[in-house]
Each structure stands twice: as C-alpha cells, then as structure tokens.
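User: Could you go from structure to sequence for me? I need the amino acid at each position, not a summary. Structure tokens:
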C-alpha cells in the first residue's frame, strides 16, 4: 500500500516551522529588550537633566539670567531628543532587516521544496504531471516576482524613512541652534 503522506518529512517540516517561529520570537524579544533599555536610559537622562535645570533656575536672581539659562538648557535637550529618535529608528530598522532576512530564507526554502514537488508529480504522472507542472511553475514565477517586488518596495520604504529621519534631524538641530543664546 502506497502511503501518500511521508510522516518523516512532515515532522521535519514542522520542526523547521517551529525553528522559524522561535527565531522570530527571539528577534521580537531582543528588540523589546533594546527598546526597554533605550527608554530606561532616556527616562533617567530626562530626570537628571530636569533636576539639574530646576536647580539652576532656582538659583537665578536676575530675570535676564533666567532667559539665558532656559535657552542654554533647550539645546542639550533637543540634542538628546534627536539622539533618542535616531536610536529608536535604528532599532526599528534593524528589527525589520532581521525579520525580512528570516522571511526571505523561509520563502527560498518554500520555492525549493515546491520545485521538488513539481518534479516528483511530473515524474509520477507524465501526462497530467505536465499540465500540473506548467501551472505550478507559472504560479511560482508569479509568486517569486510578487515577493521580490514587495521586498524591494520594503527596502525603498526603509531608505525613504532613513532620508526623512536625517532631514528632520538636521532641521531640528538647526532650529535648536537658533534657540540657543549667542555668547
């Protein structure tokens, strides 16, 4: 009796799928750890700079000096905000790259396995296998083209976001420089 289901291959497939899911979960947890560390460091820095700024302002005796101190505190805070934004963007971009890499590997494996299945079916039943094989090959070609287009579009969106982050950083730095009192 011919068993159409190969239990060993099914088990291997399930094991591979579990490994992919574990890789994605590890990537997500790593990203969350980094985000938590970034937020904790930013909160600590905000608290320290606010406390220092408040102490400086409480020591002011002249209203003109108050304006100078407030202006001198603005620039470092804007710089810290921009650094936080860049770090947040870098974290998101790195996670996106890692997840995309896993998905590309998974898709490559799927294409390879499907090509093997098409060959097997074609060899087992030459007459109906040709029709099935041609249809499957056409479907895989369309699927590959769509996947490549989506991957390229995601990379272009990442490049656009990177350019926008740099432009905003530059504009914000220039605006903060304009707020800083000249000595």
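Assistant: Here is the amino acid at each position, in order:
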């Amino acid at each position: 009796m011919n068993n159409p289901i190969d239990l060993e291959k099914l088990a291997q497939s399930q094991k591979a799928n579990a490994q992919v899911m574990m890789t994605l979960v590890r990537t997500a947890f790593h990203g969350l750890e980094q985000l938590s560390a970034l937020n904790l460091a930013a909160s600590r820095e905000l608290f320290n700079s606010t406390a220092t700024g408040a102490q400086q302002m409480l020591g002011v005796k002249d209203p003109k000096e108050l304006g100078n101190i407030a202006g001198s505190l603005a620039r470092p805070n804007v710089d810290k905000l921009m650094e936080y934004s860049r770090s947040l963007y870098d974290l998101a971009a790195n996670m996106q790259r890692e997840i995309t890499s896993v998905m590309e590997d998974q898709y490559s494996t799927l294409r390879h396995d499907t090509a093997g299945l098409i060959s097997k079916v074609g060899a087992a039943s030459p007459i109906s296998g040709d029709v099935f094989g041609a249809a499957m090959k056409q479907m895989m070609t369309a699927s590959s083209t769509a996947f490549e287009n989506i991957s390229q579009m995601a990379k272009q969106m990442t490049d656009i976001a990177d350019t926008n982050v740099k432009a905003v950083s530059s504009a914000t730095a220039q605006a903060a420089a304009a707020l800083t009192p000249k000595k």
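One structural detail worth keeping in mind: The chain has a mean pLDDT of 80.
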